[in-house]
Design goal:
Largest sheet: 6 strands, parallel
Helix content: 40-55%
Strand order of the largest sheet: 1-8-5-4-2-3
Bound molecules: 5,6-dihydroxy-NADP, zinc ion
CATH class of the largest domain: Mainly Alpha
Low-confidence stretches: none
CATH topology of the largest domain: Dehydroquinate synthase-like, alpha domain
Shape: globular
Distance between the termini: 39 Å
CATH superfamily of the largest domain: Dehydroquinate synthase-like - alpha domain
Number of domains: 2
CATH architecture of the largest domain: Up-down Bundle
Number of helices: 15
Oligomer: single chain
Mean pLDDT: 97
């Protein structure tokens, strides 16, 4: 049964090969001062920077640049971004990049007009914004996080090794996002497959909770099948527009809050992966991949019916003559096999973690209780050890 819920998505999307031209429809809605937020320079190499700057100039914008947003953006960088946005009296924060730039722009947006330290306020105390929020727009260059159409913002404190996400409300979501699948084609394969696993896992996190018959899970299964099918095409031919466009659109739907409506959710793979990321600064999607199988094998007995459904409906496992556990295990084998085919990390050792770090990483894992088993700290340590 579906629980009661409300649903609204505040972000306007423009999708497709010619979508960047719609930036000119959006820019007139905001004041003159734009802060252009981008990462380590990929947009300069692939030409997206020049295209965006041209449109900003055509629209008479006064542009300040905030570059060098790193993957897993840090609290220090956030403080720097707040300063730039204040000095420029920003009317719009335009993030051009992947989830890191988009997440970072949201964190800056809620901090520009606020006196407190943004890390303490939003990522330690989880306050809600109580100051004027600067609007955010996004030109997405990497498919994965769903940040283009949600209120999530994940920031890393490199001193304390904490990586923490705050899911803000609709007023912080990007006002608009531009999604051109062609912009994702210059991604290195490592990032492309990390993004693909991130998408898949977002769907799993919302799927592996509850056993009711509900339409959110049916949509989740369709999305998972599409991601698997298209990922295999994209890995062989990264220039395949059909596959890249399907992956990009699936990424948005995987985490724009739709498939969590009316049901409980898990999110423990993200809690484990995020803690690993805080200590290793590894690529987000890879941290998830590296802890997933030990985690799912551990919780499967507590949610065997859903894991059986996953095996049959997503992976096409034939259940005839088998116990629920046998079918569920075949589904997890199929998941592992697909992960190997696309080439994601299957252990945290290759991401920079070692046995001596496990207790510290485990300490930082937030324990959530929406999944099939609320883990104890000892179980978390065990899963992390099995992920090495
Ligand atoms: O910095 P540049 O030079 O742009 O290079 C980036 C970066 O090195 C590169 N890249 C992006 N687009 C490219 C490209 N390189 C060539 N061509 C392109 N078109 O890819 C690298 C990774 O980019 P990043 O933005 O860090 O990746 P992603 O989109 O995976 O974002 C990761 C961040 O998002 C957070 C993660 O924790 C992590 O901090 N998440 C945000 C979520 C949300 N808002 O809801 C949910 C997710 O679960 C996740 O936690
Ligand atoms: Zn994720």
């Amino acid at each position: 049964m579906l629980g009661n819920f409300s649903y609204k998505n505040a972000t306007k999307l423009y999708f497709g090969e010619d979508s960047l031209k719609y930036l000119s429809d959006e820019l007139p809605k905001y004041g003159k001062n734009v802060v252009l937020i981008y990462g380590g320079g990929s947009i300069k190499k692939n030409g997206i920077y020049d295209e965006v700057i041209k449109i900003l100039k055509q629209n008479g914008k006064n542009v300040a640049e905030d570059s060098g947003v790193m993957p897993n953006p840090t609290a220090d960088k956030l403080r720097e971004g707040v300063k730039i946005a204040r000095e420029h009296n920003a009317d719009l924060l335009l993030a051009v990049g992947g989830g890191s730039c988009c997440d970072y722009a949201k964190a800056v947006s809620v901090s520009v007009n606020c006196d407190e330290d943004p890390w303490d306020k939003y990522f330690i105390r989880f306050d809600e914004p109580d100051c004027q929020i600067v609007p955010v727009g996004c030109v997405l260059t990497m498919a994965g996080t769903g940040s283009e159409m949600n209120g999530g913002s994940v920031i890393t404190n490199s001193e304390t090794k904490q990586k923490i996400g705050h899911v803000f409300g609709e007023e912080v979501m990007p006002k608009f996002s531009i999604l051109n699948p062609k912009f994702t084609m210059s991604l290195p394969k490592y990032q492309m497959v990390a993004g693909i696993y991130d998408i898949f896992n977002h769907i799993c996190e919302q799927y592996f909770s509850g056993e009711d018959d509900n339409v959110s899970d049916d949509i989740a299964e369709a999305l998972m099948k599409s991601v698997v099918r298209n990922s295999l095409v994209a890995v062989k031919d990264p220039e395949d527009y059909e596959a890249r466009s399907n992956i990009m659109w699936a990424a948005t739907w995987a985490l724009n809050t739709l498939i969590s409506r009316g049901k409980t959710t898990d999110w423990m793979v993200h809690m484990l992966g995020q803690a690993v990321g805080g200590f290793t600064n590894a690529t987000h999607g890879m941290t998830l991949a590296a802890v997933s199988l030990p985690y799912y094998c551990h919780i499967m007995p507590y949610g065997v019916k859903k894991f059986r459904q996953f095996a049959v409906n997503v992976w096409g496992v034939d259940p005839a003559g088998k116990t629920d556990t046998e079918v569920a295990n075949e589904g997890l084998y199929a998941l592992e096999n697909w992960m190997k085919q696309i080439g994601v990390s299957l252990n945290i050792t290759e991401l920079g973690a070692d046995k001596d770090m496990i207790k510290d990483i485990a300490r930082e894992v937030e324990i959530l209780s929406g999944g099939y088993k609320t883990l104890s700290k000892a179980e978390i340590e065990q899963i992390l050890l099995e992920s090495l």
